[in-house]
Amino acid sequence: MKISLTARILLWGVMGFGFTFIYLPLVLVVINSFNKNTSFAWPPTGFTTSWWGKAAVNEGVRDAITRSAVVALSATFIALILGSLAAAAIARYKFFGREVISLLFVLPIALPGIVTGIALNNVFTNFLGQLTIFTIIVGHATFCIVVVFNNVAARYRRLGASLEEASMDLGANRFTTYRLITFPLLRSALLAGGLLAFALSFDEIIVTTFTAGAGQNTLPIWIFQNLFRPNQAPIVNVVAAALIIVSIVPIYLSQRLTQEKVN
Amino acid sequence: MSSVKEILNRKPTLRAASLLSLPLLWLGVIYIGSLFALFITSIWKIDTFTSKIIREFTLENFIDVFTDRAYFNVTIRTLFVAICVTIICAVIAIPMAFFIARIAREKSRAVLIALLITPLWASYLVKIYAWRTMFYPESGFINWLISPIGGSSPGFGIFAVIIGLTYLWLPYMILPIYAGMEKLPSSLLDASSDLGAKSGRTFFSVILPITWPAIIAGSIFTFSLSMGDYITVQILGGTFQMLGNVVYQNFSLNLPFAAAVALIPVIIMMIYLSSIRKSGALDNL
Known about the structure:
The complex is a heterodimer. Chain A has helices spanning about 5-30, 50-55, 60-90, 100-105, 105-110, 115-125, 135-160, 160-170, 175-205, 205-210, 220-225, 235-245, 250-260. By secondary structure, chain A is mostly helical. Chain A has a domain at about 70-210: MetI-like (MetI-like fold, Orthogonal Bundle). In chain A, helix 2 (about 50-55) crosses helix 12 (about 235-245). Chain B has helices at about 1-10, 10-40, 60-65, 70-105, 105-120, 125-135, 140-145, 160-185, 185-195, 200-230, 230-235, 245-250, 255-275; strands spanning about 45, 55. In chain B, about 45% of the residues are buried. Chain B has a two-stranded antiparallel sheet. Chain B is built from 13 helices and two strands, in the order H-H-E-E-H-H-H-H-H-H-H-H-H-H-H. Chains A and B meet through helix 1, helix 3, helix 4, helix 5 and helix 6 of A and helix 2, helix 4, helix 5, helix 6 and helix 7 of B.
């Protein structure tokens, strides 16, 4: 395909602009976490590592990270099971109402989080009486299912049914076929969906605001509560910088996974 | 036991139903049930002294929402922001996705994709917080950047909200479009240029129509996520407010009214989703 010089320059320009736009704020956060000035006026006036030390021993941060991890792991676990069951049904069977049901599986991310949040809050407080860590997990699992479902359903569509049919023609039953043929083919889609579900849950704040009980701070809630407190702001900034740096790990993992698939 | 197996073997509908039962129970009962309960609440009212809900049918909330000019204005403002964010995201995302999918070499493609996904993992609040420090009037980065050429930071408000939301949802637009561009057969692009079309013509007559469903799929995210947001608006908006803020403010004192306001983005999203259902966008999510 031939691309004119103007188009080429334009495309390079947009790429440069796009990546600057994406990375500049993140780089500034990391730089600011070493900024001596507590109000983060730009440019920084001095270098200090003391905020990192203070953040590392902060009880609130640790407590919130643990809770966020528990919630994200549980929600991802539920989502992996329910999402892959649903994807198998939608992708491999034709039945009445299939269209409506596949639309239903998009709704939790297509409708604004605040609607999901107040709807769940209303039901939880009326029927359960109180909000706990379990209500956060239920809320998160609801939109995590969608992510797993989308990933697995897309994989099913790409695979086609011929391998499974061949396996069953050769005498394997449904369960064996799933175990030896379908599941290995789905594995990387499940992993990608699971990782994304974990990330979404770990980062979610809107639904969490309405489903978390008093004192049940997840990390985003903790950050939000402390964002406007002047003496906590440097610690928030360190947590923010740490999150950016830590987020490279799952990226690296998923890159390795796709590399393996290619090889 | 074997009889159950036989029945399942003979009836594919039953197999599908058994696979679907658990996920449907979860989404159908917990999620749809809660939404339904919320909208029942919107036709109730509250005791204005105790904030307790009185379970009597009334259309008062809807009459308030639809006749008060202020709520109409908030809805229009929210739609405006959501549309701006979606368009800006699309304008940046389409060329970037095209570049990565069709121009970048095989090796650098993986790196570019990783670079795009990384900010998806960085926390929502961190990103908005980053923009807050940048938009700070007088001491922020933007002010520092443009003050030498005589500008000053626009400060917090609708502009900052649009930039912040664009920033947040941009990867959600790029990734589906990238997936769509990757599937684009290169024979079509070659044919177009062999037949004499310039790059611009190829883009508008070949690339854009074929990747349209993917672009629409991306727009579902950018549009819906922008429309329901209230936290970015709180952090970057100054006094600027959107529908989400109205819902949030009324939520604890007047849930029926908050539910009625929350119905506005739901209705808009339902109209949007049903109008694009035929485009095949939902398979591109």
